[in-house]
Every structure is written in C-alpha cells, then in structure tokens.
Design goal:
CATH architecture: Sandwich
Shape: globular
Largest sheet: 14 strands, antiparallel
CATH superfamily: Exo-inulinase, domain 1
Number of helices: 2
Order of helices and strands: HHEEEEEEEEEEEEEE
Helix content: under 10%
CATH topology: Jelly Rolls
Strand content: over 45%
Number of strands: 14
CATH class: Mainly Beta
Number of domains: 1
Length: 221
C-alpha cells in the first residue's frame, strides 16, 4: 500500500479541488521566463528541466487567489554538467508587485537578478545545498533591501537541505492567515500572518543550478 501511494502523482494525492495543472508534456505555454543570462529551460516528457548558470525565475502565468495549495515534486540534479551545483530550490507564491499598475508580477520583465524581487509582496521559500547552507522561509514586504526573516524560519540542519538527485514533494500553502511549507507531507515551515497575501502568482526560482519539476498542480488546501 505504501509503495502504491508513493507512485501516485502529487495532484492525485492532494485534497481539494484542482484549479490548474501542468503535466510538462506540451511546452512552456503556461510559463514566463526571467533570466539574467543564458539558460536552458524545457518542458517535455513529464518533466520541467531548468539548467541555468545565473539567476532565473519562471512564473506560472495564471493568477492565483486564496485559499491556495501548490503541489509539485522537485529535485536538484547532479550529473556532472556545468550547472549541477545542487545549490538551491526556491519559490515565490502569492506574489504581487506594488511598483506596477494593477500589481501583477507579469506587468514588467525583470532581468532575473535576485535583488529585483525585493519589491514584491510575496511568500518565499529557499531550500539550500552545498554553497547555500540555509533553508529559509520569508515574507517579503515590498521594500528594496528588506527580506524579513524570523529565527525559526532559518534552518541549517543537514536534514533540511537538498540531497543530490532525490525527488521530494513540496506543498506551498496560503490558506487565509495560515501560511505553510510542507516537504514530503511534513510541515517544514508554518506561520500565522495577520495581514495575509491572498492573491498573486507562483514562481520557481534558482541560480547557478540544474533543477527539475514534475506532477505540478494548484488547488484548494
């Protein structure tokens, strides 16, 4: 029974109604790329493959409104290629940008440089490995240079870091005041937000790395 459950796609296990999904067999029509240099991004054969020597964010284009749960499997690839550093697996969710009319993160094109995202109001998680020695969750407040970090959301335990070539499940939750990150079904981070971000966009983020996603869906918690 355990083996059969593990074989199911994330979307099949996730409770709640599915609002969006991508099986990564039909290209990148649901995504928009922001990258600081040359990168190779492809969606085929059921896998989203991101291979980049610089900072990269890939935005899911449909806008989201809460309550929201974003589910996918992800791994950091180590196979001897130049960008196989296993350095970070990151994401923004419920992201908006007050610097543009309407607040949509898609209203302007960024270069992919990390500091440009300081102006967002968003939740952020970064799972580190190798040179990136921390795993963190942040609540961005839309101010340049401001990336607030609670002490309990700053992890350095090896068990919280990336393992090369290992698929793991992420669930990013924005359910009213409850904001959480689950990893393989266990709560990695959780917070109560008295002024929660209730709408926005989801984006995959990495830098100098090679990461892959599969079984992507967005639904209700």
């Amino acid at each position: 029974m355990i083996a059969a459950l593990a074989a199911l796609p994330v979307a099949a296990r996730a409770p709640g109604r599915i609002l969006h999904r991508d099986d990564f067999r039909h290209g990148l029509g649901q995504w928009r790329l922001e990258v600081a240099g040359d990168a190779r991004v492809a969606a085929q054969g059921g896998v989203l493959d991101i291979d980049t020597p610089t900072g990269l964010t890939l935005w899911f284009m449909p806008a989201l409104s809460g309550p929201t749960a974003i589910d996918y499997e992800v791994r950091a690839v180590s196979a001897g290629r130049p960008n196989d550093h296993v350095s970070d697996v990151n994401a923004f969710w419920m992201a908006t940008d007050d610097s543009v009319p309407g607040g949509s993160v898609l209203a302007r094109q960024r270069s992919g440089v990390f500091e440009e995202y300081d102006l967002l109001r968003t939740y952020y998680v970064g799972i580190g490995g190798n040179r990136n020695t921390t795993t963190r969750m942040r609540r961005y407040v839309g101010k340049a240079g401001a990336r607030p970090l609670l002490p309990e959301h700053d992890r350095v335990d090896p068990a919280d870091m990336l393992e090369p070539n290992r698929w793991f499940r992420l669930r990013l939750i924005a359910d009213g005041q409850r904001i959480a990150v689950e990893r393989d079904g266990a709560t990695l981070f959780s917070m109560t937000d008295d002024a929660p971000y209730r709408h926005g966009h989801f984006g995959v983020r990495t830098t100098q790395s090679h990461v892959q996603l599969r079984n992507f869906s967005i639904g209700r918690p």
